Amino acid sequence: xxxxxxxxxxxxxxxxxxxxxxxxxxxxxxxxxxxxxxxxxxxxxxxxxxxxxxxxxxxxxxxxxxxxxxxxxxxxxxxxxxxxxxxxxxxxxxxxxxxxxxxxxxxxxxxxxxxxxxxxxxxxxxxxxxxxxxxxxxxxxxxxxxxxxxxxxxxxxxxxxxxxx
Length: 165
What we know:
Elements: E1 3-9, H1 15-32, E2 48-54, E3 60-67, E4 76-83, H2 92-106, E5 113-118, H3 122-126, E6 131-132, E7 137-139, E8 142-149, H4 157-162
Parallel strand pairs: 4-5
Antiparallel strand pairs: 1-2, 2-3, 3-4, 5-8, 6-8, 7-8
């Protein structure tokens, strides 16, 4: 399967692509995780959107968004990482996350990234070099932890991929 990783500003998203993003986020966060929260938080318009798309059928497989410094946190942040239910265990979350980290380091030239991670994914984020900067806490009924990545230059997709993570 041929895949494409795209980085888009909100205004560049077609109506149908935006619908796919919102449906994926709804399916994962609201329905699958039974978490009632305001997904439409007025930050999507300020975000960069990372999309992993199947070239075969143009379907959205995985997604995350990058928020500029000063929106959610004082630092650049990554959030809303989601993979379609039938596309999991294929490394797609890793590809999207690495693309986001690379884009932040190379294009935004930020030296630090902050996330509010679901706690059960702690080791996933730790594998990219994120370190905990808070104690676990409840956010919308799900255990979270704030994490930061400060050594983005030391992490490359190739070394991450080759290590089997």
